[in-house]
Fold this sequence. Notes:
The chain has 913 residues and is an alpha/beta fold. The chain is built from 35 helices and 37 strands. Helices cover 47% and strands 21% of the residues. Strands 28-29-31-32-33-34-35-36 form an eight-stranded mixed β-barrel, surrounded by four helices. Strands 1, 2, 3, 4, 5, 10 and 11 form a seven-stranded mixed beta sheet that branches. The chain is flat, with a radius of gyration of 53 Å.
Amino acid sequence: xxxxxxxxxxxxxxxxxxxxxxxxxxxxxxxxxxxxxxxxxxxxxxxxxxxxxxxxxxxxxxxxxxxxxxxxxxxxxxxxxxxxxxxxxxxxxxxxxxxxxxxxxxxxxxxxxxxxxxxxxxxxxxxxxxxxxxxxxxxxxxxxxxxxxxxxxxxxxxxxxxxxxxxxxxxxxxxxxxxxxxxxxxxxxxxxxxxxxxxxxxxxxxxxxxxxxxxxxxxxxxxxxxxxxxxxxxxxxxxxxxxxxxxxxxxxxxxxxxxxxxxxxxxxxxxxxxxxxxxxxxxxxxxxxxxxxxxxxxxxxxxxxxxxxxxxxxxxxxxxxxxxxxxxxxxxxxxxxxxxxxxxxxxxxxxxxxxxxxxxxxxxxxxxxxxxxxxxxxxxxxxxxxxxxxxxxxxxxxxxxxxxxxxxxxxxxxxxxxxxxxxxxxxxxxxxxxxxxxxxxxxxxxxxxxxxxxxxxxxxxxxxxxxxxxxxxxxxxxxxxxxxxxxxxxxxxxxxxxxxxxxxxxxxxxxxxxxxxxxxxxxxxxxxxxxxxxxxxxxxxxxxxxxxxxxxxxxxxxxxxxxxxxxxxxxxxxxxxxxxxxxxxxxxxxxxxxxxxxxxxxxxxxxxxxxxxxxxxxxxxxxxxxxxxxxxxxxxxxxxxxxxxxxxxxxxxxxxxxxxxxxxxxxxxxxxxxxxxxxxxxxxxxxxxxxxxxxxxxxxxxxxxxxxxxxxxxxxxxxxxxxxxxxxxxxxxxxxxxxxxxxxxxxxxxxxxxxxxxxxxxxxxxxxxxxxxxxxxxxxxxxxxxxxxxxxxxxxxxxxxxxxxxxxxxxxxxxxxxxxxxxxxxxxxxxxxxxxxxxxxxxxxxxxxxxxxxxxxxxxxxxxxxxxxxxxxxxxxxxxxxxxxxxxxxxxxxxxxxxxxxxxxxxxxxxxx
Length: 913
């Protein structure tokens, strides 16, 4: 087998080259080189009339009128030119005069002109389209095809003798010009040793204007007319990196025919015989002659074959394919080199050098030992980890790197680990052990042991990593996954896991599991006033209180920004849940100290107790949050134990919100109007617009039931805007009918929180056409409690529009008198709670009387709400109250009923007038 190995290598190389087609590329490259070495001039019998940049510059943008081609043809005939070929597309008609002039010129030329045809692909991917000269042109000329084949490397080498267009074979342009027969002849190789630059060329415009020097070059010559200008794009790549225009390529093909240089490949039989001769020569000489003689013989054979091919290609119309011969020679030279090299030793040296480079550049520590576990390789990575230099460690036992285990366990055995590595997939065993640095510090090491049979016996290797940082980071990640980074308390995940465990214990031994969800009251004000850094300090101080007072067995956790939780198991005779919650709340009676500041923080607590307050951890957390939310709304600063009614109330609210959204979509809301009268004579001065909901099943729903939900839901702004728009349209309708009714609208807080209310009111007045003085907006204290500066600016702009602003429910808030001074108000409405007991309660009477007197001094209108009898109305008149509303004058009613009861007489009077 060794004897025939070189020849098998050659056969494999040839098979690979033949299967991949590489020999074709080599054959073309050799042929092109021969063209470059055998440069020759053109015969001069073919001249190109170039449509060049000069002609385009002088004549104008291509395409040109065919009258110019007709004139050119007459000039050529007059100059005594021989055959004339146009490499120009004449397949589409132009103006009739130009076409007729060109037909006449062709006829005058005696039919000796050659016009080109060509195939081109169709855009939709169908069969190729054939472009032929127009029939009047083709009747007066010779047809010729100008298509050439572009090979896979993008070059043109072969030239077709003819092309089948339809059912007929059409000769190529060069064949017609050269007077050759196109029948039954295969394509030939153009002789590119003919220099393209040696082909004579004249400019189209010079011939057209009768330049004598240009016309002199054309006498008795074969002429090809075509585009050579770059911008016309008729360009082809040919061997040896050259690019020529289409007419020059046709001229090279014509020159190849005229000079008898229609080149063709030789038969493959000669190449096969040559391969056989080389193989036999090598088989005979392989063991008989020295490698140098064989190398010389092969090189000489290659040179001789190539010189012969050059000579044949230069003298005859044949191109000898020597590609496979050269490949076989190269393969034999390679086989000789491989046969003479000691590959085992070479590969060993290469592997050793590569291993050394890798080991020295490896960031991890790499240590290798001999079979006695003495260190033989110590890389810079190991020095960086342990602090020893290679000189200090080479020859020392591997166990020097191991710390003495404190727990008495044995050190890792490199021998055992490496032997085990041979038995596992991947060939490596990873072991962790405590290492010792040169300075005595111990640290965690991860070692990947392996072993192999070397030339000097069994050897061992270990890749070492310092994993102390990784372990610390893993511990930190574990801590962050279980604890809150700011307070050090357990986080929600840890609390949930502990709750699950407590509930499981409670199922085995019946007992309570209590969860307290703690929320800080007003914590956002601390962040707003002192910043988030101060807020973080407060949260840390808050965390310490329940941690110190929760007792053993309880877990304290931080749930979110300002929410904490305590979970504990109840014990027999232990502290009741209520007492525990009160004790935790009492822990916050003492102010918190953070740096130089003291903060008094109040908390609200929601309590959920297993099993009544939830059967699982998620239930307890959810119900504890519900109880906290209720405590903040109703018993802020105290605690509330979860009851089923709390969740039921929430579910009812969610159901009501859903129904309200449908009601808004279906148009179930209506506006009722309650009259406002002048108390002195009972005349109508206005009406308050009040929303009503006509439920399709329940009928009219009390506003007291659904408005609290509306005001705290996402529907608030949408419904409030609808109320304002509907009331303004109704007031405008009354205004157009001749009755000016001032309509009062209750403002919703949501209308101030989104957008610019003043702009919205101005736009509504403009679109509805309502007179601004007929619109009255009623605001409550909770609206004025918002951003005072912004609200004050908005109300000033609303008053500038002419709209009245009244303070509603006066007397029920905390700071009502201060708002009379701060805000631009036109009046106030005394709350019904004072008016209802006016006759029987002297304190109410004193408050109402004082309010009326104060309002008059401030120039404000006073409207009393809730008047239900004449005595109350008369008493208010005696106090100086000007306007009022209540059931005594009329209940809230639909617009139609309001018109019928309060506006009919006035409207009739207007109509009569």
